[in-house]
Amino acid sequence: MLQNLDMHQLNETVAFIQSRTSLQPIAGIILGSGLGGLVNDLDIELSLPYEEIPHFPVSTVKGHGGKLLFGKLNQQPVVMLSGRFHYYEGYNMQEVTYPVRVMKQLGASVLFVSNAAGGMNPDFKVGDLMIINDHINLFPEHPLRGKNDEQMGPRFPDMTEPYSHKLIQSAKKIAESQQIHVHEGIYIGLQGPTFETKAEYKYLRVIGGDTVGMSTVPEVIVAKHMGMDVFGMSVVTDLGIRDEMNVITHEEVLEAAQAAAPKMALIVKELIATL
Ligand code: HPA
Asked: How many domains would you assign to the chain?
């Protein structure tokens, strides 16, 4: 794939998908590691393995499904990405964010993103949920670097409200009515694949982060470039807090995410109904 976004390729991808389904998604949903359970609530109309979609990247990490799903979630037409593309896998930023471009071209005006994340806010515990209200981009490469296509979005996108205030307010109301405890805070995105050292965790806290992970920020930037509204949530799967830090494995991250996933799914499902 080219470094620059190729509109011709994007049009081919979208035309292929539209030849397979007439469903017009109003929202796109990207499921994070261990958070794929929301798929079970989707009334699936079409499931497309990535390999079958022209110009779509193909996923490599085990535990990541690798399908683009179309259907109704709580009566609303949505497209779901089951198995996201991480920068640490070796994809370039255009590949990491390609599914978001596709979702928007298919009609989605809202993007939902979720992630498993490390928590460095001392009030957080493993299994807690955090609504993302802002982010800090520490990826070494920017998804909008390169020639800008004005049809897609502006050269210098505004980022004063990366996560929709309106959706955050609605989500907090939903959480309260369902008696689900949620935090609100800042997600820091970096490349991985190493988890953080103690010194890095300390630094990430000092610069203002509440959670940290290896995804989300590139997709959100591209969604904002195209004028989408975004809602994001982290599930805290491990802690980077002094005295509470343990050795972390990918398996533990997946396990903690899976345990908290039903609560997050409930919030997303209810939120989708408000669109
Ligand atoms: N750091 C980065 N990514 C993560 C973490 C973490 O601690 N936990 C889950 N994903």
From this structure: 1
- Buried b / exposed e along 206-226 (16+ C-beta atoms within 10 A): eeebbbbbbbbbbbbbbbbbb
pLDDT at 251 over 90: no
Instruction: Name residue 132's beta-bridge partners.
Output: 185
What's the angle, vertex CA 261, arms to CA 139 and CA 111, rounded to 5?
50
CB atoms within 10 A of CB 90: 9
CATH of the domain at 68: 3.40.50.1580
d(CA 152, CA 230): 17
Indicate whether residue 267 lines ligand 1 (CB < 6 A): no
Shortest-distance Cα residue to atom 9 of ligand 1: 117
Domain assignment present for residue 2? The answer is: no
H helices present in the chain, as ranges = 7-20, 93-105, 165-177, 198-206, 217-225, 250-273
**Mean pLDDT computed over 212-240:** 96
Residue 174, both tokens: 């939903």
pTM given for the model: 0.94
Tell which atom from ligand 1 comes closest to the C-alpha of 257. Answer: 9
Q: Is 238 in the pocket of ligand 1 (CB under 6 A)?
A: yes
Parent domain of 207: 7-273
